[in-house]
Amino acid sequence: MPDFVWQAARADSQRVEGRLQAADAAHVLRQLRAQGLTPLQVSQADAGGTDADALADARGARAKGFGARIEKRAVTAADILLMTSELCIMLKAGLALDNALRVLIGMNTKAQMGALTQAILDDVKDGVPLSRALSRHPHHFGEFYINMVRSGEASGHLSDVMERLVEHLERVRALRESVVSATIYPAILLVVALLSIISMLGFVVPQFETLFKGMGDALPTPTRIIMTIGHVFTDYGLIAGLGLALLIWLARRWLRTPAGRQWWQARAVRLPVVGKLMLKYDLTLFARSLGTLLGNGVPLLSALRIATQTVGNAGLRQALEAVAPKVKGGGKMVDAMGASGVFEPLAISLIRVGEETGRLGPMLLELARIFNRDVETGIKRGLTVLEPALILILGMLIAAIIVSIMLGILSVNDLAI
User: Fold this and answer.
1) C-beta separation of 121 from 266 below 8 A
2) What is the pLDDT of residue 250?
3) How far apart are the C-alpha atoms of 254 and 262, rounded to whole Å?
4) How many CA atoms lie within 13 A of 262 on its CB side?
5) What values do phi and psi take at 6, rounded to 5?
């Protein structure tokens, strides 16, 4: 097997190099990635050529070795985060932007992701700044991402800005994943409860209909109620299920419209516990985005406008949109935030300290950490109550059905005696 000379970047952005024996460059790339390294250059020990040629050879070998396993799926937020992280490592290791993008193309196993990176590389090779190349793909790179990259280009510290961008994206992903993960177990409990009730009413209760037939008013009231419900469920359950599915489908379509989304958001924030958590979740995104942008030199008014667009709730976004005009008119940031009516006294105090000390960005990031902790704590407390409540309700419903049937059986025995 031929010898290959390789260069790679570690997670701490230090460049390392070495020599490996492998069948082809694709196997070398696999081994480097398995060791937690980001490949920068792979070439045969006796091969000549420039770094760009070596990178192209490695990319071609990888494409040849893994072409059959290329996945044709849509680009996700996780793909963008991985791309940003690897690009940050390569830039900090001293690799030129165009070569770093070539390496990313070689490491991609997604057709769409490879095409996206190739389009960005083509624009960069034509002399287009990276921020402008990213702006041509707004579906994948939002305004926040693009402005962060633009600030790095303007300051000449693109690798540092990419590192902060990776940190921001990872925190946002962690917050969203914690919210999603927290709802999985209650959702499973709810599904189990529905399936249990359906099986009891659809299969268990009808088995006793022959036994109780002809007893009329002699049956206990709970038994008659359960038998009636079971009879209705057996006769009209399919129609009711289809009607409910259609209703849910129509409701989901309507909630995706601007009017439906605004109607739901306006009522969701008024819910006793969930509403407050949803509000803090959006404020966490706003505070972290604004603090990150300000920390990278983005002007305050532009940062306010961009951070406001990260808020999903339309009512909250409308309240925050009123902050920038007041600041533009010469007002203080803390006064404009307080007038919005969406921030707690602690948040106002932190913003005041940040504005007076000239450390508004770090104070907003600290505020985001506080909000993030409050959201996670609130979710855990809510689940502490919700999970046993669902179990209790499920047990009571099934117990009510069983007790009703047992009362009917006891009535039959009494009549027989």
Assistant:
1) no
2) 92
3) 11
4) 7
5) -130, 155
Mean pLDDT by groups of 10 residues along the chain of 417 residues: 72 69 70 70 58 45 41 73 86 83 80 87 89 87 80 76 82 78 80 83 78 68 83 82 90 86 81 83 84 82 83 84 89 88 88 89 89 83 80 85 83 63
In DSSP notation, 284-336 reads HHHHHHHHHHHHTT--HHHHHHHHHHT---HHHHHHHHTHHHHHHTT--HHHH
Q: What angle do CA 213, 219, 222 make, to 5 degrees?
A: 115
Which pTM was predicted? 0.61
| pLDDT value at residue 316 | 86
Token code pair at residue 392: 């209790």
Buried b (16+ CB within 10 A) or exposed e, 326-339: bbeeeeebbebbbe
- Token couple for 24: 């082809």
Other CB atoms within a 10 A radius of the CB of residue 29 amount to 26
Phi, psi at 293, each rounded to 5°: -65, -45
Q: Any idea what DSSP says for residue 203?
A: I
Residue type for 371, please?
A: F
- Which pLDDT does position 9 carry in this prediction? 67
Residue/partner pairs of 327-336 with CB below 8 Å, 24 or more apart: 327/300, 327/301, 328/301, 333/300, 333/360
Alpha-carbon distances, residue 163 vs 91, 167, 250 (angstroms)? 10, 6, 43
Q: What is the pLDDT of residue 247?
A: 93
**Sheet strand arrangement including 3-9:** 15-21, 3-9, 38-44
